[in-house]
Amino acid sequence: MTTKEDKVKRKFDKLAQTEEPKPDLFKHCISAFIVGGLICDVGQFLVNLLTAYGLPKEDVSNAVPIIMVFLGALLTGIGAYDKIASFAGAGTVVPITGFANAVVSPAIEYKKEGFVFGVAAKMFNIAGPVLVYGIGSSVIIGIIYWILNM
Questions:
Q1: End-to-end CA distance of the chain
Q2: What was the pLDDT predicted at 1?
Q3: Which superkingdom is the protein from (predicted)?
Q4: What is the mean pLDDT of the chain?
Q5: Whole-structure pTM over 0.90, yes or no?
Q6: Smallest Cα–Cα separation from 102: which of 86, 122, 88?
Q7: Which conformational region is residue 72 in: left (phi greater than 0), alpha (psi within -120 to 50 degrees), or beta?
């Protein structure tokens, strides 16, 4: 680029920054906290409900994440999770339902490309790196823990 183009680009960037609306950070934090808390409350309600029905604690510990992932996938499939996420932001990313949304959204988006090259190949576009680094870091921490406890 020439210097004249650089000047115009810098001037445009500066103008764009001044005209860009500033987000209400406090409002975003509150809405993320409330919605994230409500999602966790649903999980706790399920724990209490299944425990009250006499399920052993180990079975409850297995059933609740399965139910929460199903609910996240269902809400994503019917388009409700995106509306909730646009209001709550990170409040929907952190709980386990955010993982379900991260897997189901690309699957829905790439469904038109077929089940193998669309759904199966693109399903973990968003969640894949999280899984890789999560599993990798847990292995490293496990090795460090094992070494320290020898």
A1: 60
A2: 52
A3: Bacteria
A4: 87
A5: no
A6: 122
A7: alpha
d(CA 141, CA 115): 36
CA separation for the pair 92, 38 (Å, rounded): 10
Report yes or no: 69 and 98 within 8 Å, Cβ to Cβ: no
- The tens digit of pLDDT for each residue in 9-58 reads 888 888 777 777 777 889 989 999 999 999 999 999 999 999 999 999 99
Contact 122, 110 (CB under 8 A): yes
The pLDDT value recorded for residue 71 is 93
Q: How far is CA 67 from the centre of its chain?
A: 16
* SS3 state of residue 47: helix
User: What does the DSSP assignment read for 81-110?
Assistant: HHHHHHHHGGGGTSSHHHHHHHHHHHHHHT
Percent of the chain exceeding pLDDT 70 equals 99
Cα–Cα nearest to 36, from 85, 70, 3 = 85
What CA–CA distance (Å, rounded) separates 29 from 133? 26
